[in-house]
Structures are given as structure tokens and as C-alpha cells.
Design goal:
Elements: E1 3-8, E2 11-16, H1 23-31, H2 41-60, H3 66-80, H4 99-118, H5 129-133, H6 139-176, E3 181-186, E4 189-195, H7 196-221, E5 223-224, H8 241-253, E6 258-259, H9 263-268, H10 271-297, E7 308-309, H11 327-350, E8 353-354, E9 357-358, H12 361-385, E10 391-392, H13 394-403, H14 412-415, H15 417-430, H16 434-440, H17 446-453
Parallel strand pairs: 5-6
Antiparallel strand pairs: 1-2, 3-4, 7-10, 8-9
């Protein structure tokens, strides 16, 4: 491999000759050989958007030469288009402010801008990664801003549409199954009858509420830390810089971002990210409940509950021919486990706000964005490959009702709790149904018994 020399305040570093990044990125690569985890492409592209908008505004404010601003804008757009994804090589586990990734971006954009202007990549002239690409910015306000930008974009573009699709699929099943009477269950024991549609209606409402919870976080995610620079005081940035840059970001994304009401809060804490993760965790818990219920309701096919049938998607066993498993619900359960674990990491990350800066930004960013993406994909798959294809086993649903001892509850208003309990005990010991015992003991007219128990 061929190398070129790049210099920074600490000396000379050998950088791969074909790399757009420079010395500070290479130092980070050397210092943090910890994992194979890197910032998601969406984060990198949003960071490039900040650089493009910053260059445009700095030129408008008379702080940046047009030729340099245009080159930065062009290079940033190439990054936004995914043309240089392979140049972002810094591990997630790095300096807690994300400075290494911010400098990775500054160096790539400056290097490519220099190539545009001179035909030679690398170096710091005529475009300097700090003086020009990072003008008016600090890693400490840029990285928190990009977390919010990327999270809100993913929520709008991917997560909300997916979970609304799941909600619609569940609501459709609630309507389809509204006349199918079945046995309710509490404590894993027989309870009084309900309708299968009511069960699915409960699931649909869980997801509807998940949408509401996630949307409720949007006002806090829409606040951006840009303009605070190093410690939140706005040192070395033009007073109009943040507002103008944020306006351009809003125009580009179609989302309404605003400058943080308090820059010290926006950089010292990551409460909005923790709050967003909490809403995602709640959705994950809802998915656990729904996925577990449908696989239990479909258990069998000969010795389980078998009240519903799930779509058959693939062979379920390498040794048992004909076995088909509830693979989609199981995948959803695993996604939920990952999201709940991510929330724990984000919670710990939120505690990394010490004095004027949170120093666990990369791990917060990575886990928050992964949770959003995983839930979006899992919800879409759950809706399309499982919920939409569920059918009801009417015979099984009705069969369990007649055999249930819980049916005796309907007789309580007429005969009292104690007498009803005695009938239930006798039915259990004899193996007969509640209806059979009630008729045998002539507790009420037969037609009244049928009316109360359902005929």
C-alpha cells in the first residue's frame, strides 16, 4: 500500500495515499481498534448535510470565499449521495464527543474539495478541514445535532409508516374476527369468553398508542444544538449562523428543526435521545406481548391452542419433517430484545453528561438509530408476513368455550358465587361441562341457562 504524509498539531502521520481522510482520522483508526461498528450511513449523510449548509451560510455571512464554499458544498453533496461511504472508518467506540468522526468528515470534505479545486487530494490548502469546513462549529454542538436530525428523519421516513401499517393490519383482523367468540385467558388459565376481534383490537390500540408516544418526542428531537460550539456559549460563531443553517437543514429534510432553546442543556445532556429511546422500548415491549400472544394462539397444530393459524413460511426443523414454526413472531421477539438492550446502553449514555458536555454521544447515536431501524423493519415484516395472513380456527375457538369452567361466572348473578363455585367443582371432578351440570341440577330453566352461557 502506498502512503502520503499528513500533518497536524501533533506531528506527521502516514495516511493511505488513496484515502480522502487525513491525519486526525488516521490517529483515531490507530487509537480505537475496538470493534467493527461504524456510524450508520444515514448519520454520515446527515453530518455531511450540516457541512454543506454551514459552508453556504458562512459564504452568505461573508466569512467564506465563494470558490471554497462551493467546493465544500459539492464535496459534501457527494458524501450525502453515498459516494464516499468507505472513507468513514472511525470506530463507534472513540472519543465521547464524537470529535474523531466530525474530523473524519471535515478531512474527507476538505480533501475532496481540494481535489476539485487543484486536482490533488489531501492537505489543508486551499480548503482547511478546521478553518473552512468546520467554521462556526464544534464537534460538541454538531454531533448532538446530527443525532437529532438522523433520528427524526428515520422516525418520519421509516418507523412511523411501518408501525402504522402494523396497526392497520391488526385493526383489519379485529374487524374480520369480530364475530368469533372464544375463551379469554388470565394467569394462563381459562377466563370468561371474549371475541377474537376484541383481542386483536387490543393489539391495534397498543400500536396506535406507540405512534402517539413516538410522535410526542418530536418537539424535543427537533431542537438542534448548532450554534453552541465548545461549551454552549457560542464562542467563535456568527450570531446568525445557527438559525440560518438550521433553516437550510429544515428545507432540505422537509422537517421543522429549530435552534435549541438552551444550548447548555442541548450539549450537556442527551435527555431527548433518552426519551426517544424510552418510547422505542415501550413499542418493543408491545411487540413482545403481541408476538407472544399470536404464537401461543397458533400453538399446535394438534396439541396446542390452535385458535388461529399463522402463514406457513418455511420448514421449521432440520430433523422433524412437516414441522412449521412461528418464525416471524420469533424474529420480532429478538428485535425487541435488542431494542430493550439498546435502551439500557442509551440510558447509561445519557448519564454521561458531565458539566458542559455529554461524552457518550457515539454509543447513544449508534444504538438509537439501530433501534429505530430495527423496529421499522420488524414492524413491516410482522404486518406483511404474519398478521395479514392470520386466519381463525372457528371450531377450536368455540370448542374451548363449552369445555371451560369459567363459563359458570355467567350464572353468578342468578345463583350466587358459592353455588356457582360448587357447580364448577362438580364439573371439574366429573369431567362434564358447566352446562351439563347446570341442567342436571335444574338450577334454572334450560332456556335461561342457554341464554346465560351462550348457545
Amino acid at each position: 500500500m502506498k502512503f502520503r504524509e499528513e500533518k497536524d498539531s501533533m506531528g506527521t502521520v502516514m495516511v493511505p495515499a488513496d484515502a480522502y481522510y487525513g491525519s486526525q482520522t488516521q490517529r483515531a483508526v490507530d487509537n480505537f481498534p475496538i470493534s467493527d461498528l461504524r456510524f450508520q450511513a444515514g448519520f454520515i449523510h446527515a453530518l455531511a448535510l450540516v457541512k454543506r449548509c454551514a459552508a453556504q451560510v458562512n459564504h452568505q455571512l461573508g466569512l467564506l470565499d465563494k470558490k471554497i464554499a462551493d467546493a465544500i458544498g459539492r464535496a459534501s453533496q457527494e458524501v450525502m449521495d453515498g459516494r464516499h461511504d468507505d472513507q468513514f472508518v472511525v470506530d463507534i467506540f472513540q472519543t465521547g464527543s464524537g470529535t474523531s468522526t466530525n474530523m473524519n468528515m471535515n478531512e474527507v470534505v476538505a480533501s475532496r474539495a481540494n481535489e476539485i479545486l487543484t486536482g490533488q487530494k489531501g492537505g489543508k490548502s486551499p480548503v482547511h478541514p478546521n478553518d473552512h469546513v468546520n467554521l462556526g462549529q464544534s464537534s460538541n454542538d454538531v454531533i448532538p445535532s446530527v443525532i437529532h436530525i438522523t433520528a427524526l428523519r428515520l422516525i418520519h421516513a421509516e418507523l412511523i409508516p411501518s408501525i402504522e401499517s402494523l396497526e392497520n393490519a391488526l385493526a383489519a383482523k379485529a374487524d374480520e374476527f369480530k364475530d368469533i367468540r372464544k375463551l379469554g385467558r388470565t394467569h394462563l388459565q381459562d377466563a370468561v369468553p371474549i371475541y377474537l376481534g376484541q383481542e386483536f383490537g387490543g393489539y391495534a390500540r397498543q400500536i396506535e398508542l406507540a405512534v402517539e408516544r413516538i410522535r410526542s418526542v418530536e418537539p424535543r428531537l427537533s431542537e438542534l444544538a448548532l450554534g453552541g460550539t465548545a461549551v454552549g456559549s457560542g464562542l467563535n460563531t456568527h450570531p446568525e449562523f445557527a438559525g440560518r443553517v438550521i433553516s437550510l437543514i429544515s428545507d432540505h429534510t422537509g422537517l421543522s428543526f429549530v435552534e435549541a432553546r438552551n444550548h447548555f442543556e442541548a450539549q450537556a445532556a442527551q435527555d431527548a435521545a433518552v426519551e426517544a429511546s424510552g418510547a422505542l422500548k415501550t413499542l418493543a415491549v408491545s411487540l413482545v406481548k403481541i408476538a407472544n400472544d399470536v404464537r401461543w394462539l397458533a400453538s399446535g397444530p394438534r396439541s396446542g391452542l390452535g385458535e388461529i393459524n399463522l402463514p406457513s413460511l418455511q420448514p421449521g426443523s432440520s430433523i422433524m419433517p412437516g414441522k412449521v414454526n412461528p418464525v416471524i413472531p420469533e424474529a420480532v421477539l429478538q428485535v425487541a430484545a435488542q431494542v430493550i438492550g439498546n435502551d439500557a446502553a442509551i440510558t447509561m449514555g445519557g448519564q454521561g453528561g458531565i458539566f458542559e458536555l455529554n461524552v457518550m454521544l457515539p454509543v447513544i447515536a449508534y444504538n438509537l438509530l439501530q433501534s429505530i431501524s430495527l423496529l421499522a423493519e420488524a414492524a413491516a415484516v410482522f404486518a406483511d408476513k404474519c398478521i395479514a395472513g392470520i386466519t381463525a380456527n372457528r371450531k377450536a375457538c368455540s370448542g374451548y368455550i363449552e369445555k371451560s369452567l369459567a363459563l359458570v361466572t355467567a350464572l353468578v348473578p342468578e345463583i350466587g358465587y358459592d353455588r356457582a363455585a360448587a357447580i364448577a367443582k362438580k364439573a371439574y371432578e366429573s369431567g362434564k361441562t358447566i352446562r351439563e351440570i347446570a341442567v342436571e341440577e335444574d338450577i334454572l330453566p334450560a332456556d335461561e341457562i342457554d341464554k346465560l352461557l351462550g348457545s
